[in-house]
Structures are given as C-alpha cells and as structure tokens.
Amino acid sequence: MEQGMQIENDEVAVTDSFADYGYETSGPMHNLQVALLIFLFLLFFPLLSFLMKYLFFWSIRCANLVNRINRMIMFNTYARIGLETYLELSIVALLRLKQFNFDSYNEIYHSVFAGAILFLIVAYMLFSLAFLQARFKNLALPEYQERIGDLYLGIRVGDRYALLFPFFFMLRRILYAALLVNWSERNYF
C-alpha cells in the first residue's frame, strides 16, 4: 500500500492529492505550514510594529512608512479575519459550552477557553455596532475606508441604518450556530 491517506475500493483508490489527477498541488501539509506562518505573523505583528516604531523613531520617512503599514494591515486584517471566522468560532464555542464541565484540568481549560471565545464574539459584535455608529460622519473619508473599511463591508455609509448590517451579519451567524448545535439531534434536519 502506498504512503498517504487513501481509501481503497475494488476498482479505485481515492487520495487527497490533486497531483494524482494531473493538477499541480502543494499538499495539505504545505498548505497548513503556510497558514501557520501567516497566523504567527498576524499574532506577532502588533509586537513587531511596536518595536519598529521605536527602532525607527529617528527618521521621519521610516516613521511614516511604519504608520502607513500599521494603517493598512492592523485593523482591516484583524476585522476581516474576525468576520470570516465568526461562524466557525460561534459553532466551536457553543459546542464546547454544550459539554461545559470542570472535572479535570483539561476540561476546565477547554470550558473556560470556550467561554472566553463566546465572550469575545459577543463583544466584537457589540463593539462593531458602537464603533461604526460613533464614527458615522467620518466613514466616507478615504482614510477611514483604507483603515477600517473591512468592518463595514463596503456598504453605503450615507445611511445610519445601513451600518446595522455588520451587527445583523454577526447576529445571524450566532443564531445559525446555536441552531446547528442545539437542534442537530432533532428530526428537522
């Protein structure tokens, strides 16, 4: 039997590699490594940015470059990741809270972590609502669109009610996750 994950059948062996079908592939492990590197970069970027700001304080040009990089990467990237992973984080947190217990250290860690994720999800939803409503008059400015444009998803910024869309976007995902987690055993699905 060959190396790798394969499901063998009488006639066909199905693999997880597109190379078997004539397509270029980097393999699942390579993709995971790239995702890990991106995650680590985003995890340590605030610290790196802080260090760059104080290492290059002597030059106005370097300080302006660091500030521009911070404006482009900092908020928009993290806002986009938060919106893209909102449903998955909601499902994971609610699944763990369904089995909420404190029997062992491992259970305590996972239960507290799931509670923290759920708290952050709700806080992010409320923060985005309050932040967008408080900055309503400035959202049409190009510098705000460059800096926090991903938070309001490119919607019309001339209408205050349109800024409720990100709040309802996140609320729908929490409710959908709650339905998936709590009603999965019912015969509705």
Structural overview:
- This protein has 6 helices and 2 strands, in the order E-E-H-H-H-H-H-H.
- With 189 residues, the chain is mainly α.
- It has 2 domains: 1-43, no CATH class; 74-189, no CATH class.
- Helix 3 (86-98) runs parallel beside helix 6 (165-182).
- The chain is globular, with a radius of gyration of 22 Å.
- The protein starts with 5 loop residues before the first strand and ends in a 7-residue tail after the last helix.
The overall pLDDT average reads 77
Low-confidence stretches: none
Helix/strand structural class:
mainly alpha
The helix count comes to: 6
Q: State the end-to-end CA separation.
A: 39 Å
- Please bin the fraction of helical residues: 55-70%
- Count of discrete domains: 2
SSE layout and pairing:
Elements: E1 6-8, E2 13-15, H1 28-55, H2 60-84, H3 86-98, H4 105-134, H5 142-148, H6 165-182
Antiparallel strand pairs: 1-2
